Structures are given as C-alpha cells and as structure tokens.
Amino acid sequence: MGRSREYLGERLVDSYDGGRGGEDCCEMMKGFCWNILPGILGALTALVLMSALLYYPYKWSFDDGKSPEFSVAVVGVSGLDPDRDLGRPTLDPTFDLTVRIKEPRRYSVACVERGTTAAVSYRGVQLASGPAPELCGRNENTTEARSVMAWGHANAVPEFARERLAEELRRGDAAVDVTLTTPARYCRSCMQTVIECKPRVGSGEFSPRCGVTTDFPTFPDSPDVPYPQYQVLQPGRRLLRW
Q1: 195: part of which helix (H) or strand (E)?
Q2: Using CB atoms within 10 A as the burial measure, which of 50, 78, 157, 172 is most buried?
Q3: Is the pTM here over 0.70, yes or no?
Q4: What would you measure as the largest C-alpha separation in the chain, in angstroms?
Q5: For the segment 133-180, what is each residue's pLDDT rounded down to a tens digit?
Q6: Where does the sequence pass through the membrane (predicted)?
C-alpha cells in the first residue's frame, strides 16, 4: 500500500507538471508568431511593391518604339472649280475632312483635343478653317472623325496660287495642307501640339503619315513676346517630332 500511494503521488505530480508545460508551450508559440509577424508583413509589402515596379515596365515594354499615326482625307470640296471659282480674286471654299488616328500601342492613348482647329491652306495661303471634334485612339485600334468641316469666306488668294491650283485640279494631283492645332494654354508646363498633313484633293484618299510637333505656345498677335511664366519663350522651338 505504501508503494502504491507513492506511485500515485508521483503520477499526480507528473500530471500537474504536464499541464503547466502545455501552457508554457502555447506561450512560446504565441511569442514566436509575434516575433515573425513583422517579418512576414515586411515580406508581403516588399512583394507588392516589387510586383508594381516590375509590372509597369513589363506593361510599357509592349509600346516601346511605337507611335500613333495621324492622317487626314479630303472627302469633298466645293468652291474650287477651276473654271467657275478660281478665276475670282476671292474664294469661298468648303472642305469636308475625315481625321484618322491609328493607335498601335496597347496601353497608351493619342487624342485630338477638344478645341482643336483644322486649317486648310495651299502654298502658304489659308483657304478655310473650322473646329475639329475631340477624338482619341486607343487599344491598338483605328478611330475616325468624319464630316469635319472647314470653310472660308471671301479669302483673298494670289493669282499665281489660283492658277497653279487650277492646273493641279485639272490634272487630278492637287494637294492641300491641313493643320490641326490644339488650344494654347499659357502655363509653365503647358505645350501645344500641331499636326501637319498633306492630303490630295478629289481622291478621297488618306494623306501620308502626318507630322506631329509639340511646341511652346505663343501669342497669336505677338509671337516674339515672352509669356510671363516663361523665362525665355522660344517661338517655333520643336521639342517632339513623331
């Protein structure tokens, strides 16, 4: 009996110590989790940041070396008949234009801004002008704006230009200059885009790729006068050419 009581006492003590040991184990696990939690959070944060830093260069790499293509077609024209109209010193022409944007880039957008003006000229003499609608090309697609009207009223055109234009119209190889000019915003970081195209008249075909120039905006009446926020305004300085 004495040995049985001693054995039972040892078992009770062992059971009591074992329970306390379980609690100690839980406390150790809690401490371990709290110790590694900042490291896990830091690793996750670094993973998110690295994913963003690597994603955008990978995304933009699809557009490297690509640029949008602008073109213009003269769909219709009136007031430029070689026999009836071009013999007069002043002209009242009307042009029906179509503006096209081919955007080969997947993640970029090319636009003709709202407030853009379309001007039609021949050998430096303006024949017509009119507003161009807002138009954007995106997602490797082609976008067109039709029925962009430009007109002129009693525009004085030199005789040599009228005679040359009449000859070219009779031969069917006349071409005009179409310039799309975005609005001028006078601020330090504002730029003005000029899109220059040369479509043929009468064929309805789109012009070759237009030239796109980004310049500092200048005052229409005083192009040599610096705008106040610019230290030196350089008229005609070309910063970007597509």
Answers
A1: strand 192-197
A2: 157
A3: no
A4: 140
A5: 999 998 889 999 999 999 999 999 999 999 999 999 999 999 999 999
A6: 36-56
68 in the Ramachandran plot: left (φ > 0), alpha (ψ -120 to 50) or beta? beta
DSSP classification of residue 236? T
B/e letters for 194-220, b = 16+ CB within 10 Å, e = fewer, are bbbbebbbeeeebbeebebbebbbbee
CA–CA separation, 72 and 137 (whole Å): 14
- pLDDT of the residue at 13: 45
Predicted local distance difference test score (pLDDT) of residue 216 = 77
> pLDDT tens for residues 7-28?
444 554 454 455 555 566 676 7
CA distance 174 to 205: 12
DSSP 27-54: HHHHHHHHHHHHHHHHHHHHHHHHHHHH
Burial class (CB in 10 A: 0-12, 13-18, 19+), 5: exposed
Dihedral (CA of 233, 242, 140, 150) sign: positive
With CA atoms as reference, report the closest residue to 229 among 183, 185, 186. 186
Domain edges within the chain: 2-62, 66-241
